[in-house]
Write a structure and sequence with these properties.
Helix content is 60%, strand content 6%. The chain is built from five helices and four strands. It is elongated, with a radius of gyration of 18 Å. It is mostly helical and 178 residues long. A two-stranded antiparallel ribbon has the order 1-2. The chain has a two-stranded antiparallel sheet with strand order 3-4.
Amino acid sequence: MKIYTRGGDEGHTSFFGGERVAKNHPRIEAYGTVDELNSVLGVSRVANPASSLDEQLISIQRDLFEIGAALASPNSDGRFDGPAPERVERLESSIDTMESSLAPLRAFILPGGSPQSAALHHARTVCRRAERRVLNIGDESPPTRASIVYLNRLSDFLFVAARFANHESGFEDVPWKS
């Protein structure tokens, strides 16, 4: 199978199911940004492969593939359901666990610190953009709604994970000062 098909040379691509749309269609923008987020998480993983966060990040990357499939499949009749509610609960539980080992926040912090923390902060900002792109679709289907909830909670997770990565690597968060 060839990697190139020439099918997109005129600026169009296909959803699962075959419908052709412009490559800048809001749904394509949404799952493209989810794919970008997945790539940034890959960068964060290689920044510290020994991190205790690695297994969670792999699991999140798998969740993001499911979100991408759900977004790429409008009208799929339930073939792709998006992330299940227990995955959001898993993120919340992880946030609570990580926060229990961190000093309480008393100020805004600047992104950075360890390489993994910087990459996780980057992932957080891409996650927030992915959430906005999914909202731009204007689709109220259960898979899309589930994806929005997951991405919202994931951005919270990524913020705390960035702080946790600094803590785990012995870096201090840098408070913002005007």
